[in-house]
């Protein structure tokens, strides 16, 4: 049996999971030499910000996103009816993104991404170890590093982590580097994190 790979199947988890099972939920993949080894959890830059995805009701499809100083910045809202979309709303209740679950997941981010199948937006690599994402003409890749999923610039000699999503006892944490914030990737990364943590098959 192959290891469970959230980049392929989604990334479901139970609130009762132990740290051992949480760590075992991601595959150990061979990394290119420039990517940090999974056993060494690298530090993000000092200007990084942490966003906590918490208050699951009962999962990430209905959750609250807290920023620095525990300020409530976003909410993911989903009607309980199967197939209803998940809407990401900012602190002013504006809809900033939508994930439609009525068929294979589709994503829409106004001003950034028109309605697009998730499998096309987060394109699975040929070796099934990473997902490639293009935003505003910039190319990125998501790749497991240990128990985390990390965002890197694609086709670049700079292999610094731009963003990292990890699970914790109260939900999940999304860490954003200053560079990622400057690139306007916060809402994009929140949507990608929702897809990875939803447990849905993206393909």
UniProtKB/TrEMBL annotation:
Name of the featured protein: Uncharacterized protein
């Amino acid at each position: 049996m192959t290891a469970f790979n959230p980049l392929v199947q989604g990334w479901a988890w139970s609130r009762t999971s132990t740290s051992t099972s949480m760590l075992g939920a991601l595959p150990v993949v061979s990394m290119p030499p420039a990517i940090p080894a999974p056993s060494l959890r690298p530090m993000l830059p000092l200007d990084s910000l942490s966003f906590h995805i918490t208050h699951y009701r009962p999962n990430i499809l209905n959750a609250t996103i807290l920023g620095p100083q525990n300020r409530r910045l976003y909410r993911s809202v989903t009607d309980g009816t199967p197939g209803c979309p998940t809407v990401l709303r900012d602190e002013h209740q504006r809809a900033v993104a939508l994930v439609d679950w009525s068929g294979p997941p589709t994503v829409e981010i106004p001003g950034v991404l028109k309605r697009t199948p998730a499998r096309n937006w987060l394109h699975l690599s040929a070796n099934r170890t990473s997902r490639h994402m293009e935003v505003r003409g910039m190319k990125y890749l998501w790749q497991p590093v240990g128990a985390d999923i990390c965002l890197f610039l694609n086709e670049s000699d700079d292999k610094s982590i731009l963003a990292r999503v990890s699970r914790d006892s109260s939900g999940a944490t999304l860490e954003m580097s200053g560079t990622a914030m400057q690139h306007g990737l916060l809402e994009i990364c929140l949507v990608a994190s929702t897809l990875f943590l939803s447990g849905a098959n993206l393909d």
